[in-house]
Amino acid sequence: MVKNNFISYKTSVGYKNSICYGDNLPKRVLFKYKPTLLAAGLAVVFLIAVFLITMFSILISNLLGRVYAADMPAPPQSVTVSRGEAYNSLNIVWQPPATPPSSAYNYRLELVNNLQGISLTQDNLAASVNNFELTNLPTGLYSARLYTVTSLSTSLPASSDNSMEISLNYLGQVINFNDIASLTDNFQAAIQWAVSYGITSGYQDGGFHPATPTTRGQMATFFHKLAGNPNIQGTPTAFKDIAKSVHKSDIDWLSTQGITAGYTCIGKDKPVKTCTKLGDTVYYPEGKVTRVQMATFLYRFAASPTMSQTEIDYYLNSFKDKAKIIASGQA
Fold it and tell me: Could you read off the pLDDT of 275-290 as tens digits, one per residue?
């Protein structure tokens, strides 16, 4: 026999009705509380599942960490970088790890040009290889890492111990000038580019002297080195003021290429200080290079490419001081 219990509940007007509870709880009451009970049960199940998954993940992570640590390969040794023979190329040479991994391995090379956002990766360089050449690289300031890679270390981050930092610094040689640290990255990159191509080596005091004006003689040397120091072919202009200049051969080459014609003297010290008499042709090697002269030298060095008057006007109109540009000025 099933026993029922009753509870009377009170309303604003007195006692009203009763409901039963116990074994014979009416279906309308069960239906009323069933969704709440179900939600609570699901929440408990969810929390238990999250706890178990978390514990399992920690366990697996610890186990894998031990395996990775045990198989962490040693980095390559004696990594050197030099300019390659091909255009804009790098030749990277290294020695195998001091203690080669017990399992099969290869190398990975990562090359990054931060200034231009270029990233290059060369995977699966065979363990039997100890050099690699990268060709046709865009001019830029590069950094790179060389990895020893095994099947258990390929997912390790670049900051792991299985990498060796390589500073390429504009495709070759770099000089740590003592006075360029405060310059922006773009200026430092441009200076190191000039160093890597042998265009400049700075001053004997270890500085580059970034704020020192460039002389016309120095500029002649820069252009000659940029061209690869070719031999002089043809008859150079007989400048009257370069016989004692350390830049004489470079100035002679510059004139044979049609990059400079120098100054024609119109009197003593006119238009430049090295003029001594009317009609002489001088180069003025100690004179400062102006921006308009620099533009002229670069244009002629590039073989004076043809531009329409429309193009010329378009670019000149972008300068507020275009009226000060002397189109017929001597360089």
Answer: 999 999 999 999 999 9
